[in-house]
């Protein structure tokens, strides 16, 4: 057999269906061997640059889970990043320079904002509101946290604080449409609540003795506003005209 023929046979056999070496859904047994392990890192024992590096890695890991809509894993990763991003030592003393402290705070703000977003996806409204307040403690002019806090307060019915918070966000970013929309929604909610409160009392308590006109059935209007005397007179005139026309026709 020529070499080209052998190649054709091999190619043909590779395309033919055959039974797999392992049947589908066959149980598999794995044997693992632990070669090494690492103890959990203690953030307070690490230098600040290492804390920033590891904390940022965990934050990016949280972003990865968030994009995959695995919000529980994302929230866990953000919390681990926050545990790592600290500038304190074992004796609660700061050990970072001013630049390092600012960098750590920037990463903490990012982690907290992302954590609040993940908490909202998980339906943890109170936790998200608390996290947003933590952001504003570090960065009082963080528009994202102001907007999220104002929206959550509005949803909880705390309209006064929500209005104040959203106005701060609008002052910082006047062109953001989402803030305008949320403020408009908040104004409508306030107006609806005030209207509901005004009409919660019974009608008798609102009108007092003047309620009688509202309970009396209004008189029914007549179907025709013309009196019967006028109709009778018009009928007589019409009959007279008809008789006169007949008489004149007979004479002619």
Automatic annotation (TrEMBL):
An example Gene Ontology CC term for this record: endomembrane system
Protein name according to UniProt: FKBP prolyl isomerase 16
Transmembrane segments: 230-250
Gene3D superfamilies for this protein: Tetratricopeptide repeat domain
Keyword Transmembrane: yes
Sorted UniProt keywords: Membrane, TPR repeat, Transmembrane, Transmembrane helix
UniProt entry tagged with the keyword Transmembrane helix: yes
Database matches in InterPro entries: FKBP4/5/8-like, TPR-like_helical_dom_sf, TPR_rpt
Top-level lineage group: Eukaryota
UniProt organism field: Cyprinus carpio
Entry's Gene Ontology molecular function annotations: protein folding chaperone
TPR repeat copies, ranges: 109-142, 143-176
One Gene Ontology term from the biological process aspect of the record: negative regulation of apoptotic process
Entries under SUPFAM superfamilies matching the protein: TPR-like (SSF48452)
